[in-house]
Amino acid sequence: MTPLEQQRQRINQLDEQLIPLLEERLTVATEIATAKARQHQPIYDSRREAVVYEHIQKQAEQQQLVPYLTEIYAAIMQATKKIEEDEQEDQHA
Ligand SMILES: O=C(O)C(=O)C[C@]1(C(=O)O)C=C[C@@H](O)C=C1
């Protein structure tokens, strides 16, 4: 195997670990959507998002990666808000 093939195989392995965790995160989000609908709370919560970003900064072992992690989390939270909206729409259908 070439180095590139090995690196891609490692990426595949890491994705295999990430996907179930992301699936679980999205599943928890559908539960949050239900709780928020009951409590008449908006899906978007800027204060909570600030806490999530702060947590990333604290957790990151490589501080130079924080801007990239922040970009990834912005996309994750965008998708999370979408699934929460879809969940609330399904509940109203
Ligand atoms: O914690 C929440 O209230 C969520 O809905 C989850 C989440 C997230 O993905 O972390 C998504 C949307 C909110 O704006 C804040 C955070």
From TrEMBL:
Residue ranges of every copy of the Chorismate mutase domain listed in the record: 1-88
EC number: 5.4.99.5
Record GO terms (molecular function): chorismate mutase activity
Keyword Isomerase: yes
Keywords: Isomerase
InterPro entries assigned: Chorismate_II_sf, Chorismate_mutase-related, Chorismate_mutase_GmP, CM_dom_sf, CM_II_prokaryot
Uppermost EC category: isomerase
GO process annotations (BP): chorismate metabolic process; salicylic acid biosynthetic process
NCBIfam families: CM_mono_grmpos
The protein's name in its UniProt record: Chorismate mutase
UniProt source species: Fructilactobacillus cliffordii
Lineage per the UniProt record: Bacteria, Bacillati, Bacillota, Bacilli, Lactobacillales
